[in-house]
Amino acid sequence: MSYMNRDDRREVILQAAMRVALEEGFTAMTVRRIAAEAQVATGQLHHHFTSAGELKSQAFVRLIRTLLDAELVSENATYRERLHAMLGSDDGGFEPYIKLWREAQILADKDPEIKSAYLLTMRMWHEETAAIITHGQKAGEFSSRSDAADVAWRLIALVCGLDGMYMLGIAEMADPAFDRHLDRMITLELFI
């Protein structure tokens, strides 16, 4: 690899870690695998990151930020459509991100750095969800009787629970049911 300044080389390594994470998951994110993907010596990873855990965590947070920033609906979408997209995207292209998020949830119990990153991404998701609700309330599309932050947490909790049941293969939680339950809760929280 040609000469790069410190920040550029660090970014190359981080991007390589992100690719490995999306394609193969956390368990594949070894120092050797990431170094090979970045085409650098393994020592470069240790030079730019204090630990493999720090690198994994930063890659995970950056990937989830990308997911949360994705334009899932048109700019003239209703706030309900925006909220639904933030909570339960139908875009199958995001499945690798969702799979990684599920893996992080499991690893968080054993890895403090992943736990910290997972908690940060949950707060990021909550912030984005609450912002959509607040904008919808200001626009008069949503009822303003409830606190947007509280509603956002309840909706996120519902989605996480539904996802858990979906992952268990409960037939009643297949995609149409997920959407139906989410739509019903949005109605109960923000329209009635």
Question: What keyword list fits this structure?
Answer:
192 residues; mainly alpha; 9 helices; elongated
Description of the molecule:
With 192 residues, the protein is mainly α. Helices cover 71% and strands 0% of the residues. It is elongated. The mean pLDDT is 93.
Summarize the structure.
This protein has 192 residues and is an all-alpha fold. The protein is built from 9 helices and no strands. The relative contact order is 0.10.
Q: Which helices and strands occur, and which strands form pairs?
A:
Blueprint: H1 6-24, H2 31-38, H3 42-48, H4 52-69, H5 79-87, H6 95-107, H7 112-138, H8 148-167, H9 175-190
Helix pairs in contact: 1-2, 1-4, 4-6, 4-7, 5-7, 7-8, 8-9
- What does the average pLDDT come to? 93
Order of helices and strands: HHHHHHHHH
Helix content estimate: over 70%
**Structural class determined from secondary elements:** mainly alpha
**Could you tell me the radius of gyration in angstroms?**
19 Å
